[in-house]
Design brief:
This protein has 477 residues and is α+β, with helices and mostly antiparallel strands. The chain contains 21 helices and 6 strands.
Length: 477
């Protein structure tokens, strides 16, 4: 690839009715469209494409694992009528004598919700966003509808991740996240960018797709306070909205050039200083390489505390029944993210999956954090231990974030013994672990043979298989 593609931000004064002074740089959506065109002709390194394929396997594994959860069934039930696209783990129409296909929008919505169903999907820390569960379901649905290859999807996904991550870095702060869901705000533009690449749109239409997608950003962060289901549907809305924006642009709809950085643009409106910072695409390593795979099915900010607590528990040095108090040190971003500093009670599963206290208590009691940890939210031992856990913001960890996601767990026992474990960063699930999860989930959903064929097709570096053929294997026969 060539050097970094720089898109200069603008200073705006939206309280004024006067037009902004003329600038040499084009509007951000236009500059971004030009950078996307340049990236579309790039030859990505092997490691970048391998990471994109790993992201695809991880997404499929999450969707298979979530296939029977209430929110996955609800999202799939919204699909009406026949269509050319597959809802993952839906019945195989050929074996039932009927068609169970869906429209691209309905399939993208349902598959995105399923991919998000365990809270275990891939994570980009700098953007505080889950990009895979938006970009990948949108691309798979569009590629299945338009008869595109898996290779085309992989390259388009790299660009979608890049756009979503860079916009997230520009817009997301702890203050932003108090009110708005990052995935819902950067997801539509990420999906639109990737989909525009897949369709081969020109500069003007890519700009319009991005601008229209900026108008479709949504998602509030009220749900963590009660553990309600809103969160599960944010990626579905973002994926569908990204496809809608691209389709409208393809048909000739024109989005405002300043929809991202104009006086009333998305980034301008959401930045506390009303100034859009510089945005640089592919400045150094592609952003997809910064994505990590969660080792445990909980909120991103509970990952490192949970891992530190697991290490303490599995080292065999601690009797959880002898614990008097627990102090957890994290970054300020983790401390203030809605729902993360919550010691209970826990009425709904999302309250527990967001809570650092719940994850740490589970780890100390059981030496693990998995789906079984969330089977009984009222477990008295876990609840009593969670109430002994205090979460504190650490200045050093705050300064290191988002480059590092550090945490420390410090335990004091009833007889005054102190034990601690600090991790400089989250320890991501490794490629072997991601594959093992995929094989287990896919095998349970569609059978071992189909699971092996899916994995082989995703691994094929040529990527010449049609996405329609790949998605056919994800149906339950």
């Amino acid at each position: 690839m060539s050097g970094a593609m720089e898109l200069r931000g603008r200073d705006h004064f939206p309280e004024s009715d006067e037009a902004a002074p003329p600038l040499d740089s084009p509007p951000l959506a236009t500059a971004l469209a030009r950078a996307i065109l340049e990236a579309r002709s790039a030859d990505f390194p092997v490691a970048v494409r391998e990471k994109a394929r790993a992201c695809l396997l991880d997404f499929l594994g999450c969707a298979f694992d979530s296939r029977d959860l209430p929110w996955s069934r609800q999202a799939a039930s919204l699909a009406e009528g026949k269509g050319p696209c597959t809802i993952i783990a839906s019945p195989d129409g050929a074996s039932h004598g009927v068609s169970h296909g869906a429209s691209p929008g309905d399939a993208a919505f349902a598959n995105a919700v399923a991919g998000h169903g365990l809270v275990r999907e891939d994570m980009h820390v700098g953007a505080v966003a889950h990009l895979g569960v938006v970009v990948l379901p949108a691309l798979l649905a569009l590629a299945e509808r338009r008869d595109r290859t898996l290779a085309a999807v992989i390259d388009a996904a790299v660009i979608g991740y890049e756009v979503g991550a860079k916009l997230g870095r520009a817009i997301v702060t702890p203050e932003f996240s108090r009110f708005f869901r990052p995935t819902g705000f950067v997801g539509p533009a990420a999906a639109a960018a990737a989909s525009a690449v897949l369709l081969g749109l020109d500069e003007a239409r890519i700009q319009s797709a991005l601008s229209l997608a900026a108008n479709m950003a949504s998602g509030l962060n009220q749900w963590p306070h009660s553990g309600a289901d809103d969160m599960f549907f944010h990626p579905g809305v973002a994926a569908r909205n990204g496809l809608t924006a691209v389709r409208l642009a393809e048909l000739g709809a024109e989005g405002a050039e300043g929809a991202l950085d104009g006086q009333a643009g998305l980034l301008t409106a959401m930045r506390p200083d009303r100034k859009v910072p510089p945005v640089r695409l592919f400045d150094g390593a592609p952003e997809i390489l910064s994505v990590f795979f969660k080792p445990v099915p909980v909120c991103n900010f509970a990952q490192t505390p949970a891992l530190a607590a697991i290490k303490l528990a599995t080292d065999g040095r601690i009797d959880p029944w002898a614990i008097r108090s627990v102090h957890v040190r994290v970054s300020r971003a983790a401390k203030v993210y809605p729902g993360c500093d919550h010691a209970g009670p826990f009425a709904r599963i999302l309250q527990a999956k967001m809570s650092i206290q719940y994850a740490v208590a589970s780890a100390l009691l059981e030496g693990r954090v998995d789906e079984a940890s969330y089977a009984d939210l009222a477990d008295p031992a876990r609840r009593a231990l969670a109430e002994k856990i205090m979460v504190e913001a650490d200045d050093t960890y705050t300064a290191a974030f988002p480059q590092q996601q550090s945490a420390a767990v410090e335990i004091r026992t009833q007889d005054g013994v102190s034990l601690s474990c600090a991790l400089a960063d989250v320890v991501a699930a490794d490629p072997a672990g991601v594959r093992a999860r995929f094989r287990r989930a896919a095998g349970a959903a569609v059978g071992t043979d189909a699971a092996q064929r899916i994995e082989a097709l995703v691994d094929d570096p040529s990527g010449e298989i049609s996405v329609a053929s790949l998605m056919a294997l994800t149906r339950r026969g």
